[in-house]
Amino acid sequence: MENDLNTNLLGAPEAVVDVSLWGLFLQADIVVKIVMLLLLLASIWTWTIIFYKSFRIRRLNREADAFEDRFWSGASLDDLYDEIGDEPNDPMASVFSAAMKEWRHTSGRGMGGEGVRAGLQARIDKAMSVTIGREMGELERGMTFLASVGSTAPFIGLFGTVWGIMNSFISIAGSGNTSLAVVAPGIAEALFATALGLFAAIPASAAYNKFSSDLSKYGDRLDTFSGEFSTILARFLDDGRG
Question: Whole-prediction pTM value?
Answer without folding.
Answer: 0.78
